[in-house]
Amino acid sequence: MEGRLSRRLIRFFRDDRVLRIAGQSAFVLAAAVFVAWLVGNLNDALDARGLTLSFSFLQRTAGFAITQGPGMARTESFWRAYQVGVLNSLNVVLAGLVLTTLIGLLAGVALLSPNWLLRNTGVRSRISNPKRTSGLSEPKRFIASA
Q: pTM score > 0.90 for this model?
């Protein structure tokens, strides 16, 4: 009976699924211990310097102005600076999205166009006729033989 039980245990611990779960559990536990150590170390260092970990600095006066977008004065808070920065970033993202969509649409139309000029000035002409270049010499490619 004991021999049969020990064989079952050996088979159980040699199973790939068990080893994967055990390995992942050990990794998650080690990562959690490491993060707990980091947080403890951070709290100790902040306490030693008399600092707190909070977002209270967002209420303080920024002391600088932002002139692009909705803008802000020097007397406004860091929170307002953050809001203006997010809005300016969203403006850039929106402009980039519109422009890349238009460029992609124009390139797709040019590749499928029956117009000779549009069809031959696009990327397709380089793909379908690789010998045609823009006047620049292409580097020679050497293939090593075995």
A: no
- pLDDT tens-digit map of 33-56: 999 999 999 999 999 998 888 888
Q: How far is the first Cα of the chain from the last one, in angstroms, to the nearest whole number?
A: 61
Within a 13 Å sphere around the CA of 48, how many CA atoms are in the beta-carbon half?
Answer: 6
How crowded is residue 126: how many other Cβ atoms within 10 Å of its Cβ? Answer: 13
Rounded alpha-carbon distances, angstroms, from residue 85 to 57, 58, 76, 79, 91:
17, 14, 13, 10, 10
Is 62 within 8 Å of 81 (Cβ atoms)?
yes
Q: Where are the alpha helices (DSSP H) in 50-112?
A: 78-112
The label of the residue with tokens 């245990």 reads 9
- Contact at 8 Å (CB) between 33 and 40? no
